[in-house]
Prior knowledge:
By secondary structure, the chain is α+β, with helices and mostly antiparallel strands. The protein has helices at residues 21-24, 27-45, 51-63, 86-110, 125-136, and strands at 6-7, 15-16, 71-75, 80-83. The protein is elongated, with a radius of gyration of 16 Å. Residues 117-127 have low confidence and may be disordered.
Amino acid sequence: MEKVIYISIPHDHDILKGRGRKIGNHPGNKYLRSLVEVAGYDYVSSEKHERSVFARLIMTKVRTLNPPGRFLDFDNERKQWYEITNDDARHKVLQAFRDISPKIRKKLEKNGSKVSRPVSWLPCKFSLYSYMKYQYSH
């Protein structure tokens, strides 16, 4: 079992686990939502078994920021934050995709578009990574 490192004050690149206005307005959580919105169209068009790739790539993007973003949860007993597991972080990102998916589907239907595999989809992991690296570098 790994030693838990507690964090008193999260920085702006950290993603905070939880719900509510305070969590949602944290700069890291806003950044996560912006990444999810960009990738959301490809996410809703992908096969279910491919969707965890999007989460892993977004987690990598967050963790390669300077300073690196961390996925944190609050310990109510200690009144401090701690880094969550990769599985919990992946679930956090996938939940963000699930939250935005209905909005994207509605937008696509309103514009008369079907939810189908976009031309931009690249099935090779290396190509997908390059694609998302390009998409999120702006």
